[in-house]
What does this fold into?
Amino acid sequence: MAEWIVRQLPALVILMPFTAAPLAYLLGAKFGRPIALVSALLSQPLALLLAIRVSRVGTLRYEVGGWGGPLGIDLVVDGVAAVMVLVTTVVGLFVTVYALGYFGDRERYRFFWPLWLFLWGSLLALFLSGDIFNLYVCLELVSMSAVALVGLTLSREALVAAMRYMLAAILGSLFYLLGVALIYGAFGSVDMQTLREVIRGDTTGQAALALMTVGLVLKTALFPLHFWLPPAHSNAPSPVSAVLSALVVKGSFYILVRLWVDVAQTAAFPGASTVLGVLGATAIFWGSIQALRQERLKMLVAYSTVAQIGYLFLMFPLVTGGGPAAADAWTGGVFHAVSHALAKSAMFLAAGTVLARFGHDRIEGLGGLSRRAPATAMTFGLAGVTMMGLPPSGGFVAKWQMIRASIESGQWWWAVVVVAGGLLAAAYVFKVLGPFFGREPEAMDEADLDPGPSPWTMEGAALALALGSLVLGVLGQPLLDLIMVSAPALVAGVTP
Amino acid sequence: MTWETTALVGAVGAPFLTAVLIFALGEHRDAARSRINLAGAALTVVAVVAAAVAARAGAPDAYPSAGIALLDIGFSLRADMLGALFAVVAGVLWLITTVYAIGYMSRASDRARFFGFFSVCVGSAIGIALSANLLTFFVFYEVLTLATYPLVIHSGTPAALKGGRTYLTYALPAGGALAAGVVWLNLIAGPVEFAAGGSLDPALASTHPGALIAIFALLILGVGVKAALFPLHGWLPAAMVAPAPVSSLLHAVAVVKAGVFGIARIVLEVYGPLGHELGVTQVLAALAGFTIIFGSVRALAQDDFKKRLAFSTVAQLSYITLGVALASPIAIAGGIAHLAHHAAMKITMFFTAGAVSEEVKAYRVSEFDGLGRRMPLTMTAFSLAAIGIVGVPPVAGFTSKWLLGVGSIDAGSGWVIAVLGISSVLNAAYFFPIIHRAWFRTPKPEWAHGPAAGKPEGDMRMIVPLVMTAAIGLAMGLLAGVALSPASWAQTVAAWEFPW
Amino acid sequence: MSQTDLYTLAGSTLFVIGLYGLMTRPHLLHKVLALNISSAGVFFVLVGIARRIPGTTPDPLPHAMVLTGIVVTVSSTAFALALAKRIFTETGTAALDASDVDVEEDAGG
It folds into this structure.
């Protein structure tokens, strides 16, 4: 039995939410809640076991249904995939616990549970996909469930934001699929392991990579293609915002990393990685400045996501040269994705608690919040530490690696961007924390609306995520090691 | 775990654990919070003293240590004699400050938040003291930066928020510079552990001279803000909007000394002789000398009592910086001893400021006429601390200044004598008028007959601590020759720090 | 120019036409249709690729991909239309930005 479970782990971890999703739909809100919770809890040991297994034996390959390539679907689990599965599962659990309190058993939100579980499964399937066509299917699954979740409240703003998101998402997927078609036409395979050997930097290869990159950049909301993100992430119900910012944008980014650092690395235009880096740096500045200008908490947090996504793209110019700089950039980039996932979900959940309790999220009306909702103010502050990249937080470890990679590769200007970006993040984090620690607003009409403390499960789940992002800063070494397990040749320093 | 490592981890862990418990207790359980806070502080004192004992037993190269893997350096603690001195100062003064703060904050709001973050700050300061390498140091250094912010803006007034913003505007970019310096240094020199006499390979001075100078500048920029080195000192007077216990323990001891302690670690235990070879410590010494004069002159002009004390702190911190930057074991001993001496004297003065403002609502020096009659114990303690800072024997300040003076001649930097002389005159010029006003000017009528009959001169939870710290300051001076005094301890440490 | 290249070119042209429509037409129905045209272009390319080696049996794998793609497109179109209809009921216009144009009249009811 134990041996069977270990062998089937890659499939089991995906099947858990995919099985729970239709059950939650068929049985309605009343049973959807416990089903989601049970699925979330059972997923934890599975993801953990998967991570431990990968760290022990290296890459796992699993042929779904025993078909094998080229017609069957293969799941491939290497270090980075295991890390993404783990972070999805952990964030997923706390978001689920939070959502139990946030949505209650209100009938109008009954679709949250199946959609969320479906999104969860789709994300895991994406991370474990071994071929680029299956990745397309997973991308679409992720997008469709995410769009539906954005529109969940059926408010005007949410519907329009969902539509905008949907159009961008479908267009991004089509760009990607066109690239897949060109690659299959030219190189005769969609399996990533095979492609790694055969892909060339000819016109077709370059065109395909360019098309896929445009599509994925649009889905990851890299500046200047971020227009759809702030409305979608800020108008969605907060547990959904948390998942979107923490995990969904990382899905398309994950594919980009696979392509650029590994599979299609030979097809990259010279200098193209610098372009991605420059766009990332611009995103950091633009997103942070926009965040500073927001008056609503959730909009501020959404623009913070635009900025933080920028850091992920600094990985590309830093890995191209190979060597120790590439390893540092690789671990730094992935670690940033992980710690941002924890901290950003914590921030959105905290914003959700505020919104649910006071009926608004205008920053100027939230003075003295640390008095009225200390745990929520603390959550926001601790998550802010990761946004700023200060120790002891996962964000710090990530930035440490990025600064290291910049100096090692002789591209010190990226280090300047990383440090300056941290200071800008401090500006928008303290724009919020200042009032939180300050006095209550003079006209306290919203105090009348205050129905008292939120359920402790909500505040607790958000705080746990924020603490998690901090703990990574001190106890993150095992995760750093896992990221390097079966890392791409460029990064691991082995000649392919 | 041996008792040595238990003490080491406990010294850092106890304040953080206290903080967690305080946050968990919430706002309204005052009695339980006070008990936990006092117990935590007492436990910390036991742990830091035990760590110091262990450090002394293991000196000079078998210090107890503990750590976990993190990045390429590791997150690790070590109880060495230099660190133990700072840890004991921070731990003991925390216990005294806790008593004071319970009295001072008894009518204030948000007490859970206040005492929670206060404990975090002390834990970080002790962590800074007991860090074994630059990465660990940096982690605690930034925690201290962040945890101080809620304390600075505690009252929540627009003025407090402005002070907090000023503080962050200085502290956060400094953190960025420090991070860049630490990463860069690790790339060039490999994992840098602190070691008496410097840990850098001497060959680096010829292979990477430019980079080493740039890194030194980044590191000093990083720690120089907390050390209030000119021109990075501007946040300190602005941070005086904080409640008195914060000004007392954090802005006279934990936070600012974390900065100068960082300078000591970097100059003595990272760069060592390379600093003099590259010429960077000479620049640092000159900057410190200028800051001493600058701070003293600015203090003269302040009527606001706390601001005058703050500028005095700016100047006094640079005594420590100056001492470690001079190439002489005697000067180094003077600098390190002043770290402890100044702590005891300046905390007494800030305690005084808080006690006076709470009891008689006097905030300006010009309101102090005849205060000695109204609050005799308080003003006696203050006067004792003030003459100590000026450098009058036998109070502690004299010992450190003496060592600094002798050391500067030993190091061949005679100009320091002039700086010390001018500064002592200036110190007298800004402190003696306060003493004069308190004791020799005609008091307000309601003060003339002392405290109301049968009543103490103030909240005893505030008066007793400040008398204790004044006594500690006096004892440190009187007993400077005794084996375990900070001055002797500093001389022992300095001998290892300067073996070249 | 081989047959496959011709298909690739034609498919890419369709893709670009769809992209143009998506960016210029404010009406949501037009946008959804434009995306359908783009996907048709991509499928066209895939179908053409199946015959990339002349004289051999067509490769079935791209056909399988097109089938999967059609399934995905049909469902996402249905979803997009439902969303557009809901937006129309809620806001009275079928555009992302109500100030864009009078979309009601060319909505065709």
Q: What stands out?
A: Residues 101-109 of chain C have pLDDT under 50 and may be disordered. The helical segments of chain C are 3-24, 28-49, 60-91, 103-107.
